[in-house]
Amino acid sequence: MTPRHAPVALWLAAGLLAAGASAAPDPAALQRGEQVYARCAACHAIEGNRTGPQHCGLWGRRAGTAQGYSTYSKALRDSAIVWDERSLNVFLKDPMKTVPGTAMGYAGVKDDGERADLIAWLKEATRPGKACQLVP
Ligand code: HEC
């Protein structure tokens, strides 16, 4: 490579680094998200059903279908929600307004930043077979 090309290579490398940085979850955000999840842990676990259903495998799952959890409300089962960033953002802001009749008696995470961090962390922590195991 001639010196003439070096700036192009540097520019490319910088661009790739920037793209990588924006695609990868921010570790500080993930840490904050995990802290927000402590509020959920009164009723939920990532692995295993408690008062609320297990969260392992949440992404792409239809609402009301976690295996081994049998006490879903009809409202949630009939909601036709599929869990992803967007549906979780709406539901977790105000669960009882989003799904009237839900058995999740929780006011929601009202702060937009806290909710974004929580969802970013949940996405990583609920990857089945990678971050967690589904409990029958
Ligand atoms: C007071 C107990 C309680 C708290 C606190 C709580 N949940 Fe729930 N959650 C439930 C129950 C019960 C259900 C089942 C709701 C139904 O069947 O309508 C549920 C359902 C859910 C669902 C739907 C899961 C599915 O399988 O369809 C998600 C997602 C969820 N909760 C996330 C959270 C998050 C994230 C938090 C913390 C910000 C939280 N919950 C806090 C009790 C709780």
Automatic annotation (TrEMBL):
It comes from the Bacteria. GO terms for molecular function: electron transfer activity; heme binding; metal ion binding. It holds the Pfam family Cytochrom_C. Keywords: Electron transport, Heme, Iron, Metal-binding, Signal, Transport. Residues 28-126 form the Cytochrome c domain. The keyword Magnesium does not apply. The keyword Heme applies. SUPFAM superfamilies: Cytochrome c. This is Cytochrome c.
